[in-house]
Amino acid sequence: MDTTNSTHSANAADDANAADEQRIRELVARSQKAQIDPDVLPALHTADMVIVNLAGRRLFGRDAFASAMAEALSSPLKDIRTSLKIDDIRFTTPDVAIVSLTKTVHDERPEAEDSSGLPSVGAMTYVLTRQGDDWLIALAQTTPVQ
């Protein structure tokens, strides 16, 4: 029995997953870097995306997200930054990935002494979809970690 084709196929699949994982890691890095750029960050999401933030606010669609982001950046919330650490990447299909992250909030507002009442760490989940050769964020949900 000839197994060279199945071995080649498995290696090709592993290579494709490694390339996709690298693209996903780059997307997460771009999303973190663009967190104060209302032109770039929404473009990293699908048009029909959903976000649930650390406070439980839910936004539907890229336009609603862009509007909320612009509003936040014109308020004291502009001084809040987050950092993301990838904990796990799983492919549910070749075109859908679930990324588990730890989100850490860095509140740099002068009056930040626990003024928000929200924890500084959250368990974040991205659901990503492949669009051509790119990956975009279809869902971003953050659960506060006490």
From TrEMBL:
InterPro entries in UniProt: DUF4440 (IPR027843), NTF2-like_dom_sf (IPR032710), Steroid_delta5-4_isomerase (IPR011944)
Pfam families with a match to the protein in the record: DUF4440 (PF14534)
Domain DUF4440: 33-137
Family annotation (Gene3D superfamilies): 3.10.450.50
SUPFAM superfamilies tied to this protein: NTF2-like
NCBIfam families membership: SgcJ/EcaC family oxidoreductase
Protein name: SgcJ/EcaC family oxidoreductase
Source organism: Streptomyces longisporoflavus
